[in-house]
Amino acid sequence: MLRALWNSKTAMIANQNKLDSISNNISNSNTDGYKKLDVRFKDLVQDTFNRHGYPITENANRQVDPYSGGGSRETDALRVFTQGNIRETTVNTDLAIDGEGLFRLTRADGTEIYKRVGSFGIDIATGNLVDDMGNRLYIEYNQGINPEQLGLDRTNLSIDKSGTIYREEANSKVEIGRIPLYKAIGDKGFVSVGESSFIPAEDAQIVEAQDYDIRQGFIEMSNVDVAEEFTQLILTQRAFELSSKSLKTADEMWGMINNLKGR
Fold first, then answer.
1. What family is reported (predicted)?
2. How far apart, in whole angstroms, are the C-alpha atoms of residue 158 and residue 162?
């Protein structure tokens, strides 16, 4: 009975966390560059009812032994970095990543963050590309280029698919540098810090991305599939309700047992 109560409780907690992540995904379905959260489940400890000491060999009938599970719990919420749809904006400071990777930006305090959304503006004082929080886009400048005097504006900025930046002048182009993109090795390399921004997780291995195109005048939209999220919402709500009913039934049975003991 105690095992049943524990199983129902852990399942309810897991499903509640799943509902929270789904709600967060749906609310950000129209947020440019948003990457969905995915919460999955895993089994807790399972134990056999046939306890005949510690098994030193595999029993041929082991697979038919009755087992009792320890319930389930959610895994860590994983950020899914799959490609979102790309929307044309015709704004030449908007950059969409078609492929893998994230932009690297530097905050005013010198710390670095990574973003997928490429909605940038131009710092009037220096001509650098910055996001809406004033964080400067990291650029590998060519030799002889002064990062504090780029002379870029919305009319002369040109960026090709490889991320190479040019300043258009009269009948020529001056190559400024290149925008490198970065990715993490593994599923948990980046930690969200809000505003569609990420920092590397502890001991994360960050490497330069290779398979991508940068598309000027476009922006990447959220990768949330609203229809899929609503389907998962219904399934998770039903699972939560089932666990709730199981908990209520177990509680009623405990009440009956306590009444019998009192007589």
1. Belongs to the flagella basal body rod proteins family.
2. 12
Q: CA 210, 33, 154: angle at the middle one, nearest 5?
A: 80
Averaged pLDDT, 90-109 = 95
Name the residue among 103, 84, 95, 97 with its Cα closest to residue 212.
97
Structure-token match 């030193």, residue found: 56
Pair 30, 14: CB distance under 8 Å: no
Full DSSP string of 26-64? HHTTTSTT---EE--EEE--EEES---S--SS--TTGGG
Strands 206-208 and 182-184: antiparallel
CA–CA dist 14, 72 (Å, integer): 7
Q: Rounded to two decimals, what is the model's pTM?
A: 0.76
Closest CA to 175 of 143, 127, 212: 143
Angle (CA) 171-177-180 rounded to 5° is 135
- According to DSSP, the β-strands at 172-178 and 140-141 are antiparallel
Rg of the chain over Cα atoms, rounded to whole angstroms, equals 27
Q: Which of 201, 195, 183, 184 is nearest to 76 (CA)?
A: 201
* DSSP secondary structure, 199-211, as one string: EEPTT--EEE--S
| Model pLDDT, residue 59 | 53
Q: Number of H helices and number of E strands within the chain?
A: 2, 23
228, containing H or E segment: helix 226-261
Token pair, residue 216, equals: 């000027």
Per-residue pLDDT reduced to its tens digit, 218-255: 999 999 999 999 998 998 888 877 777 666 666 666 66
The pLDDT, as a whole number, for residue 2 is 47
